[in-house]
Amino acid sequence: MDELDRAILGVLQEDGRAPFTQIAKRVGLSEAAVRARYKNLVEQGVVRTVSIVDPYALGFQAPALIAIAVDAGKAEEVAQAISELPETAYLVLTLGSHDLLAEVYCRDLQHLTELVMHHIQTIPGVRSTETLMEAKVYKLSYRWSPTAESM
To answer: Does the residue 8 lie in any domain?
Structure first.
């Protein structure tokens, strides 16, 4: 990935629906060159174009991060079960006192309580959970991009 690819990514992060003609003007390439570079970035798995749904606009007012400790050797199975829960938006394996970290979106506190106590904590292999309710979002960015120095 070179500076032109990063420039294309920058335009797409501002407006994921920007037409190739507009991107081409902004980065100083032909439309065909932008189209080819974009196709290459998609094929390499560097970029995906998706729609982002705002859970708050849909009435999901109880977002939370749930740290989960699991029995030795059970992380994959527990992660699979948690990833299938419709409330789960993000799930990662972590290193430290917890093994998994899930971001979930629930309608309200009752929904969150039900999810934790009756769904997550009952998954075989779950040892403990720690729920951190999100009170205020200071930064939510889908604009991360590597710099030339980090490559």
So the answer is: yes
Tokens for 139, please give them.
């930064």
Q: Are 123 and 136 in contact (CB under 8 A)?
A: no
Residue type, 105: Y
User: Are 86 and 114 in the same domain?
Assistant: yes
The predicted-structure confidence for 100-151, as pLDDT tens digits, reads as follows 999 999 999 999 999 999 999 999 999 999 999 998 888 877 666 665 554 4
Burial class (CB in 10 A: 0-12, 13-18, 19+), 9: buried
Predicted TM-score (pTM) above 0.70: yes
Amino acid at 24: A
Please tell me the predicted confidence (pLDDT) of residue 32.
Answer: 96
Number of domains in the chain: 2
Q: Which amino acid is at 84?
A: E
DSSP labels for 70-96? E-TT-HHHHHHHHHTSTTEEEEEE-SS
Same domain for 115 and 87 = yes
